[in-house]
């Protein structure tokens, strides 16, 4: 097995993605967790670039690394939460968790070791943004519009819940 620059770049991005996910689960400060999540999102976008999916990489950075991260921060800052410290987890629990993750990684490795997906078409990376646009606005226009309506309903629902919470606070103050 020879190591090329592409393989080294993939492993570097994969390590950053996995490390960001592990840090997200193990850090205690919310801002640090969000920063680890951003590292994970950006490294996944780098993997998309390596797969010649530039549009998906750009959407990954714009939507997930930008918008979703900001929405999560606002949601955390605007909600009530008690600042109670969790009891420290024991070493045995951490070791068992590590063994579980290692076992899962081994099972995934065994599952994909001899996997043969056949030959992929060579023209997937050509005009992929145009192909996505044509597919969304021709074959998948109904699911695309239903998704936008669903997101609008979720936005209206969150506004109604936030307004109801404010009304309850005002009633309790009086």
UniProtKB/TrEMBL annotation:
<dbReference type="InterPro" id="IPR042106">
    <property type="entry name" value="Nuo/plastoQ_OxRdtase_6_NuoJ"/>
</dbReference>
<dbReference type="GO" id="GO:0050136">
    <property type="term" value="F:NADH dehydrogenase (quinone) (non-electrogenic) activity"/>
</dbReference>
<feature type="transmembrane region" description="Helical">
    <location>
        <begin position="132"/>
        <end position="162"/>
    </location>
</feature>
<feature type="transmembrane region" description="Helical">
    <location>
        <begin position="95"/>
        <end position="112"/>
    </location>
</feature>
<keyword id="KW-0560">Oxidoreductase</keyword>
<dbReference type="InterPro" id="IPR001457">
    <property type="entry name" value="NADH_UbQ/plastoQ_OxRdtase_su6"/>
</dbReference>
<protein>
    <recommendedName>
        <fullName>NADH-quinone oxidoreductase subunit J</fullName>
        <ecNumber>7.1.1.-</ecNumber>
    </recommendedName>
</protein>
<comment type="similarity">
    <text>Belongs to the complex I subunit 6 family.</text>
</comment>
<feature type="transmembrane region" description="Helical">
    <location>
        <begin position="6"/>
        <end position="27"/>
    </location>
</feature>
<feature type="transmembrane region" description="Helical">
    <location>
        <begin position="34"/>
        <end position="51"/>
    </location>
</feature>
<keyword id="KW-1003">Cell membrane</keyword>
<keyword id="KW-1133">Transmembrane helix</keyword>
<keyword id="KW-0812">Transmembrane</keyword>
<keyword id="KW-0472">Membrane</keyword>
<dbReference type="Pfam" id="PF00499">
    <property type="entry name" value="Oxidored_q3"/>
</dbReference>
<keyword id="KW-0874">Quinone</keyword>
<feature type="transmembrane region" description="Helical">
    <location>
        <begin position="57"/>
        <end position="79"/>
    </location>
</feature>
<comment type="function">
    <text>NDH-1 shuttles electrons from NADH, via FMN and iron-sulfur (Fe-S) centers, to quinones in the respiratory chain. Couples the redox reaction to proton translocation (for every two electrons transferred, four hydrogen ions are translocated across the cytoplasmic membrane), and thus conserves the redox energy in a proton gradient.</text>
</comment>
<keyword id="KW-0520">NAD</keyword>
């Amino acid at each position: 097995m020879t190591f090329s620059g592409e393989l080294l770049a993939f492993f570097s991005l994969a390590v950053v993605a996995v490390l960001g996910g592990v840090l997200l689960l193990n850090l205690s400060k919310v801002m640090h967790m969000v920063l680890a999540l951003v590292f994970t999102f950006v490294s996944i976008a780098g993997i998309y670039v390596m797969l010649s999916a530039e549009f998906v990489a750009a959407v990954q950075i714009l939507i997930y690394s930008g918008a979703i991260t900001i929405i999560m921060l606002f949601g955390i800052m605007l909600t009530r939460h008690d600042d109670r410290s969790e009891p420290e987890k024991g070493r045995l629990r951490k070791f068992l968790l590590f063994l579980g993750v290692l076992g899962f990684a081994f099972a995934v490795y065994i599952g994909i070791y001899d996997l043969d997906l056949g030959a992929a078409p060579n023209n997937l990376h050509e005009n992929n943004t145009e192909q996505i646009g044509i597919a969304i606005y021709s074959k998948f226009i109904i699911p695309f519009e239903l998704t936008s309506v669903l997101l609008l309903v979720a936005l209206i629902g969150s506004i109604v819940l936030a307004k109801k919470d404010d009304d309850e606070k005002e009633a309790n103050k009086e």
